[in-house]
């Protein structure tokens, strides 16, 4: 990895891309410290302390608890993208537009931008009304509230622009790198808290060693699952065109074990935060709120069980949206291909669907285990200052692997040394 980075900085245009990416990440980190005007930061930290909003504070790089202009992070963009993918299933015109090539993709991306701004505006209004109710706004007038709403919406729009600029002119996926940078930026603060626990005798060196071993095992398993594929063999028949013969080669259809990525975890966490948020903002003395606090608080058995089931469900749901076995079978048949032992057409689609169903179960189960793992790690090691758990590691490892693959692909365009060694 270090060798690839050294080689990348020796190539002019690739060095420019890397420096531009680092510059955009620096802008993101500066914006994460710019406070929203008119909000009492001390009241905010009292309202939002605890583990309920810990994950969203991690992916925002601490901007959520500081309540800076990037407090909502890039989540409205992610939600808009997911909604657009769902609408493609419901509205055939959108699905047809997405298949029209570059122009269609540009139009779809424009709709996602509009949706991001709309969702950010609605979310900012909800947050401002809630903050006004709990006295976190210094002057709870209409003008002050609208300044907060516009600041939060503009912050999300700027993050979306930064992400798109990184994707277009930098290296890697911009939105993913913003989340990655937010998670990494919180590590020094968490290590500082850990050092204080060590100095106070709360955590011993054995606990730290155990935590490091568990983290390394988690990283190794994430890499194995993210890179894991089920390769379905595909044979293409020979065909004669004029005086030349085409086809006849064997290839494979790669099906990823974790095709859904981290999206099911984000979906499930958004739903699981809903009852806990109602309990936090509502009347604490009511029986309904006591029920929510008992069964839906972070770390409870019921919370983890429902959370795991939702992750598996959303894994199947998301994979069904992004991968259509019937379309894949038709494309294989169109180019004269077939799976050995399986008839082309519908039997091929059923075979692919059967294999995909089993892979999705394995991938969903892995995501569920990764998501609820922090509770067991805290119980084993006693370390509570390191808030990033399996989900954060899943995001960091996935983004790091994807970015390194893009860097290496750029290097391979300029050097064929790896093929002759």
TrEMBL record:
InterPro entries: SecY, SecY/SEC61-alpha, SecY_CS, SecY_dom_sf. Coiled coil: none annotated. Keywords: Cell membrane, Membrane, Protein transport, Translocation, Transmembrane, Transmembrane helix, Transport. The keyword ATP-binding does not apply. The chain crosses the membrane at residues 111-130, 142-162, 174-191, 203-225, 259-281, 301-323, 355-377, 383-401. It is a multi-pass membrane protein. Pfam families: SecY. The central subunit of the protein translocation channel SecYEG. Consists of two halves formed by TMs 1-5 and 6-10. These two domains form a lateral gate at the front which open onto the bilayer between TMs 2 and 7, and are clamped together by SecE at the back. The channel is closed by both a pore ring composed of hydrophobic SecY resides and a short helix (helix 2A) on the extracellular side of the membrane which forms a plug. The plug probably moves laterally to allow the channel to open. The ring and the pore may move independently. HAMAP family: SecY (MF_01465). PANTHER family: SECY/SEC61-ALPHA FAMILY MEMBER. This is Protein translocase subunit SecY. It comes from Candidatus Syntrophocurvum alkaliphilum.
């Amino acid at each position: 990895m270090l060798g690839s980075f050294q080689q990348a900085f020796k190539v002019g245009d690739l060095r420019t891309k890397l420096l531009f990416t680092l510059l955009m990440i620096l802008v993101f980190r500066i914006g994460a410290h710019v406070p929203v005007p008119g909000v009492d930061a001390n009241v905010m930290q009292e309202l939002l302390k605890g583990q309920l909003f810990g994950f969203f504070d991690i992916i925002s790089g601490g901007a959520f608890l500081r309540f800076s202009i990037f407090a909502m992070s890039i989540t409205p963009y992610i939600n808009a993208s997911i909604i657009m993918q769902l609408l493609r299933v419901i509205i055939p015109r959108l699905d047809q537009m997405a298949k029209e090539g570059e122009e269609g993709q540009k139009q779809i991306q424009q709709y996602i931008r509009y949706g991001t701004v709309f969702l950010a505006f609605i979310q900012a209004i909800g947050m401002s009304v809630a903050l006004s109710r709990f006295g976190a706004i210094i002057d709870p007038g209409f003008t002050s509230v609208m300044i907060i709403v516009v600041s939060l919406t503009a912050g999300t729009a700027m993050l979306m622009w930064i992400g798109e600029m990184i994707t277009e002119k930098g290296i890697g996926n911009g939105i993913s790198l913003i989340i990655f940078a937010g998670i990494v930026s919180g590590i020094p603060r968490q290590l500082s808290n850990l050092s204080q626990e060590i100095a106070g005798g709360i955590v011993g060196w054995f606990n730290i060693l155990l935590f490091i071993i568990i983290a390394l095992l988690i990283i190794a398993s994430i890499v194995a699952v993210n890179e894991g594929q089920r390769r379905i063999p595909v044979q293409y028949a020979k065909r004669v065109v004029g005086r030349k013969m085409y086809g006849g080669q064997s290839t494979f259809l790669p099906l990823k074990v974790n095709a859904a990525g981290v999206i099911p975890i984000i979906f499930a966490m958004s739903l699981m935060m809903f009852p806990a948020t109602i309990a936090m903002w509502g009347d604490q003395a009511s029986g309904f709120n006591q029920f929510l606090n008992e069964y839906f608080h972070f770390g409870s058995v019921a919370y983890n069980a429902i959370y795991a089931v939702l992750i598996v469900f959303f894994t199947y749901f998301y994979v069904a949206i992004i991968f259509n076995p019937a379309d894949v079978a038709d494309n294989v048949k169109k180019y004269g291909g077939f799976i050995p032992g399986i008839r082309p057409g519908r039997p091929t689609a059923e075979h692919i669907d059967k294999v995909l169903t089993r892979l999705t179960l394995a991938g969903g189960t892995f995501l569920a285990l990764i998501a609820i793992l922090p509770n067991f790690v805290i119980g084993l090691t006693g370390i509570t200052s390191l808030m990033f758990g399996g989900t954060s590691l899943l995001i960091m490892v996935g983004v790091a692997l994807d970015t390194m693959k893009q860097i290496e692909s750029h290097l391979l365009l300029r050097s064929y040394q790896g093929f002759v060694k």
